[in-house]
Amino acid sequence: MFGTIFTCLTAVLILYYAVLVCMDLFIKPTGAADESGTPDEAEIDISDEANSFKAIEIKRGQQSAKKPVKAPAEKPTLSKPLMTNYLPVEQLARKARNITSSEDASLAGLGEIIIKCESAA
Q1: What is the pLDDT of residue 100?
Q2: What is the pTM of this model?
Q3: CA spacing 20 to 30 A to 3: which of 17, 45, 61, 81?
């Protein structure tokens, strides 16, 4: 049943594309008739307007000219790390060491990466 339906659909598809090719080759496309009816672009002479052009200087208000300059802070402000869920580095290092000694197969690749990073440092 599937073979019959597939064969019929393939034959219809081949016939469809054959008709499209014949129409493109032997019948004048309708799109070409629309394009030939459009007038050619005419050149526009703007030399008179260009000769009478005068430049005008535009001055903005005083606020945009002066930008407030911030004084550099004497002490850098410290913030808690965002990506560590506010865990101290020591706890993160301990968790990383636990991953390297873990028998979990899904964490094995991560443990290898951690070992390579520690040996490189």
Answers
A1: 65
A2: 0.27
A3: 17
